[in-house]
Design a protein that fits this description.
Blueprint: H1 2-31, H2 33-43, H3 48-82, H4 93-99, H5 101-125, H6 130-156, H7 161-174, H8 176-195, H9 201-227
Helix pairs in contact: 1-3, 1-9, 2-3, 3-4, 3-5, 3-6, 3-9, 5-6, 5-7, 6-7, 6-9, 8-9
Keywords: Membrane, Transmembrane, Transmembrane helix
Protein name: DUF624 domain-containing protein
Transmembrane segments: 21-45, 51-75, 105-125, 131-157, 169-190, 196-218
Length: 228
Amino acid sequence: MEQTSGVRGGLYAVSEWISRLALANLSWTFFNLPVGLLLLSLLYSTGARDLWYLLPPLMILLPVVFFPATTALFAQAREWVRKDEEKASRRSYWSYYKENYKTSAAAGTFLTVLWGLLVADLYYFSAGNQLLMNVFLVLGILLFVYTINCFSIMVHYDMKARQVMKQALLITITSPVLFVAVAVSAGFMLMVSLYIFPLIIPIFTGSIIAFLSFSAFYRVYRKLNTED
């Protein structure tokens, strides 16, 4: 009897986590529909002329849509990691979206510019040059981890966008364990989603990356606080 109840409890916990991850990710997907449609159009574009039509609206939508939506997703991941639901009622995705909108849009503008510069340099200068390609690959990994750390810091601290940028840079550079954990877990999940199971992108990918990344960040945060 005890074994049966244990199995049932385990199945209930698994189903609860699946529904939690899926619901948060579906909310994130809904808010990012315009961005997703533009990205799909870019993937199926046939010439440089299409890029000039699609890139400007994408660059505009990233800071005002993608970054606030992803910040809200990380805020919910923070709630899961810290088990805030045991002490207070859960907050909705929409409440986190509204609360962090200004800071995430401001930080998103800066990060969109950085990503735009990296992609432009990659497109114009690395063709046929393996050395430059490797340099931009390393810079891309650094920027990828830096961007994710920005989300974690944004939802954990009450900071202005400029402070978020500085703190994220500091922790990205000075914490190799966090860097590797975020790069490997988020990178692996992203690659699996893009190349093996693309159908899980609107259902699980974002929420799993947010949960794994914030979990790694929170472990480092608690360790630093304990040492202090």
